[in-house]
Amino acid sequence: MLSLCRNLRKFPEIQTSMDNLVKLSLRGSGIEIVPSSIGQYCKNVVSLDLRSCRYLHSIEGNFHLLKHLQMLYLDGCDQLKNMPTEGLFNAECYLNVLSLSLNNLQPGAVNGFLGFPRSLRRLNLGGCNLVDEDISSVFWEELSNLQVLDLSKNAFSRLPSSLSQLPHLKVIDLFGCYNLVELTDLPSSISVLIACGCTSLKIGDFPTNHHKWLWKVTLSTSNCNGERVLQSMLQGNAIEDYFISILFEECYVPIRGFALGTFTLQLPWNWYNEFSGFLVYVDKVNWLGDGLIVIKDVLGRENEDDALEVSNKTEHEEETMRAEAICYISFGSLRNTSWWNSTHTTLSLSFRSCVKLKVELVPRRSQGDDDSTGIEIGRAKDVTYLPNFWDGEFLNERSFEIINDSKSSIEIRWANSIGRHLFDDI
pTM to 2 decimals? Predict the structure, then answer.
């Protein structure tokens, strides 16, 4: 590992096989040229990290000989201009992760320079100044294994229709795409949509009627119908066994009847059969990284030292609350906890760091409703790892996690961060 060796300007020529070298990191070093000998003699390299090599201007040769290369990082190599015209990879390589965030990438170079291999699962093109012509020139239909796509901080106005042909795409990051005017042609497999900072985006009817796996959305457009977004997502598969997270910037869901700090919920008889989960509206998002939802069983705690002051009164019921964040917690996600008990009658829900909140029960879908989850309700051992929702592979990226569980209360961490670890080594 030669990371942060800023005085290292010339990488020494390799003259003998280095079969034991698996991970090569030159991150933040001062190298100017990646010599062809790396491809010739380091054939077993799995991960090559060239992030923030500010002086790197040339890659000699190609990586066709790196048969085992799975991860390549070129973020921040802003002086990089010379790469092989035939592309770095061949179509049959095993590259899984490619992170290419270059703000000086020339128009038309994104696909021609590299020739994206079909094996890619995660592709980062954030901050590459891509316009409509660039993003349309990529042969998206050939990237059939792609699961995570970062297109953040680019200048295109529309997504290409060929993106809809990616059958396994789970996450798309459009953060800071200020010219983006509409969201169309997302594949039905999409689970996470990040679109904050898209200041030109206008959304009428949110296009989620066929996005059954969509559970996490971040939007920042004043022209968005927040209620439509919510209702569309509640028709998806997350309603039975998972969570839903919606964060708004300048886009709100109006609702009446909120409480300050803690909301008390009286549960109707047979609530656990007639309803599918809790819907939590938050009107002020002022936590930086994580929020903590605390659900407590109120009944029978009056004589305990930490007894709660129970009140069904809400402040300013005549006013309309603007929900800036919405969280849905399915009963299926709680059934394997100690807290889960169908005899609960009165609950209190609080959200640390918020000013006002409201909690509702979501009716269970009828038997005739479309349900293509293929998951037995209440049988999932760990809903965090349900593969279709893509939230468990990266330990630092889970949006929801049960962190404390007892018979009287449960604490759920709700992360309000946009993932930046999706392209790190795993």
Answer: 0.86
